[in-house]
User: Which sequence fits this backbone?
């Protein structure tokens, strides 16, 4: 797989993540989309490291650790939302005044 | 221990404090008061020590550079931490008395992340520090869970979710952009992109990184989370959230743009100018119709970030110095406003503007403090906010950014309307209750500190200005 193809694939994954984040209204689905976006960046890191060298693999490890910490907190917040409202639909949980 | 460890002395001190707080409470449950005063004492000691022994030097491989520049921010964040802990103390004791240690631990760790940002010279350290600053905030926003102020809808979960989703998306944007930039540069050093002309892929990456930082700053068009989170999260935490992470986001942006990519300004300067102008316009205009004081201050914060970005747009050493001055002014003023608001809301049961009516009669001291803070945010002479706005606009004018200066001046007139509407409701006669507002010792101490800083720096801006110039000179400023 060439570098261009890897980056194309990663961009596609990232775009799917962004699209999902903007259109989905379930908190869990939004979390999955964020995960997709984060992993797209890992793919780019690793692809550059494989084809052009550089520190990409180490950065991917750090990015993984950040992702895990982030998702752990995210799931806890979704759980809190579920306990408060009985579901995880984001629109219905919106009570703040506009 | 290796000798270079001393460049991280202040961060290590705060980390140790956080661990002591967490472990002590785990071994034998302590009162919130004890833990909080211990943290304040430790942070104050660190702050005072930093004036005696100044950490300087670099960490191995040049990943971190300590000096006047990083020290300026470390002191600013330590001061913000002291105010944050003091301001939260009474709230912690009355509302979440059973779990105070985690709150303090998370706040202190967020502080460590922010303190590391200014000196970071490597992408790995910068990104990890940025997330260390950011992730605890998501937890803190949801900390009140189901126990918000009486009589208001319980919005903590919604506030935390909005902060989290935008924060996580911004992390993803930053990392994806970063992957492209580092891939093109082949080095994880901040200054790794040496040649001024870069591949289109790397330029796209740079804009993505810029967008990622924009989220944390709450700059337009990444500001949607600001009012909702401010409204739903516990107010003493919002006071911290509205200053420390924003200052952190700004310093990260300055380091990346002016240290990392000064030669690529043709790419990012126009984007930054648009973001700055849009933040000033949207922040000020959307603040006008708000009836909830926290939402109003949220939009006002968006506008204030626009002003500080104008100084960054100037890309000069004096621009950076003025941005630093503005940040210090913003930290103390905004902290003060939120803490007074918190004290008032704890007694009258809400944050709506008409619920702080008559504050000056109930508690003349709090009313006067709120008036001063609001006037400082509006930029009325002889409060520190006036000098901050003036210096920022002057620096931008020197750099020839006439459009941005005119936008800033016009909108600061618009801002007067809503800032003065806060002041007016404070002084209106027909308050709902005539009881004096009760505030604990710690809260009063925190408000007094903010008041002293706003008044002192307003009357004698010279020493801070000299410090800011020194820090900016050590940083190196623009190209």
Assistant:
């Amino acid at each position: 797989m060439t570098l261009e193809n890897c980056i194309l694939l990663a961009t596609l994954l990232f775009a799917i993540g962004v699209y999902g984040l903007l259109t989905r209204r379930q908190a869990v689905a939004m979390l999955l989309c964020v995960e997709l976006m984060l992993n797209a960046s890992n793919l780019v890191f690793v692809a550059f490291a494989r084809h052009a060298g550089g520190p990409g693999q180490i950065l991917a490890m750090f990015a993984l650790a950040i992702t895990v910490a982030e998702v752990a907190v995210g799931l806890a917040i979704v759980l809190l939302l579920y306990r408060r409202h009985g579901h995880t639909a984001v629109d219905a949980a919106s009570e703040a005044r506009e | 221990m290796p000798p270079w460890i001393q460049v991280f002395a202040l961060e290590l001190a705060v980390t140790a404090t956080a661990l002591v707080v967490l472990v002590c409470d785990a071994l034998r449950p302590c009162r919130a008061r004890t833990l909080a005063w211990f943290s304040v004492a430790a942070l104050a000691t660190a702050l005072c020590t930093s004036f005696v022994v100044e950490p300087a030097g670099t960490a191995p491989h040049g990943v971190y550079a300590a000096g006047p520049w990083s020290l300026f921010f470390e002191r600013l964040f330590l001061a913000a931490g002291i105010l944050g802990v003091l301001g939260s103390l009474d709230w912690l004791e009355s509302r979440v008395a059973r779990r105070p240690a985690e709150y303090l631990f998370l706040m202190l760790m967020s502080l460590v992340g922010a303190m590391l940002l200014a000196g970071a010279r490597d992408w790995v350290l910068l990104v990890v520090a940025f997330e260390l600053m950011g992730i605890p905030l998501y937890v803190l926003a949801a900390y009140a869970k189901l126990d918000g102020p009486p009589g208001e809808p319980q919005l903590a979960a919604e506030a935390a979710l909005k902060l989290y989703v935008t924060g996580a998306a911004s992390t993803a944007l930053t990392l994806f952009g970063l992957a492209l930039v580092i891939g093109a540069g082949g080095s994880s050093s901040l200054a790794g992109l040496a040649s001024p002309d870069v591949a289109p892929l790397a330029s796209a990456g740079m804009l993505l990184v810029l967008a990622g930082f924009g989220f944390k700053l709450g700059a337009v068009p990444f500001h949607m989370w600001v009012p909702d989170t401010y409204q739903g999260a516990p107010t003493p935490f919002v006071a911290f959230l509205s200053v420390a992470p924003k200052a952190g986001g700004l310093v990260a942006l300055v380091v990346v743009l002016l240290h990392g990519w000064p030669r690529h300004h043709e790419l990012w300067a126009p984007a930054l100018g648009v973001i700055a102008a849009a933040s000033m316009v949207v922040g000020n205009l959307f603040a006008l119709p708000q009836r909830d004081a926290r939402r109003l201050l949220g939009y006002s914060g968006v506008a204030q970030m626009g002003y500080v970005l104008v100084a960054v747009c100037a890309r000069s050493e004096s621009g950076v110095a003025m941005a630093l001055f503005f940040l210090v002014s913003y930290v103390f003023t905004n902290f003060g406003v939120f803490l007074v608001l918190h004290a008032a809301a704890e007694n009258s049961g809400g944050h709506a503007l008409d619920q702080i009516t008559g504050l000056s009669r109930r508690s003349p001291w709090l009313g006067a403090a709120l008036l001063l803070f609001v006037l400082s945010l509006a930029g009325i002479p002889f409060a520190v906010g006036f000098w901050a706005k003036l210096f920022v606009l002057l620096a931008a004018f020197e750099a020839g950014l006439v459009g941005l200066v005119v936008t800033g001046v016009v909108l600061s007139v618009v801002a007067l309307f809503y800032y003065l509407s806060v002041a007016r409701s404070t002084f209106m006669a027909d308050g709902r209750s005539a009881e004096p507002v009760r505030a604990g010792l710690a809260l009063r101490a925190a408000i007094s500190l903010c008041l002293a800083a706003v008044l002192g720096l307003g009357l004698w801006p010279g020493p801070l200005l000299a410090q800011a110039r020194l820090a900016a000179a050590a940083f190196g400023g623009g190209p």
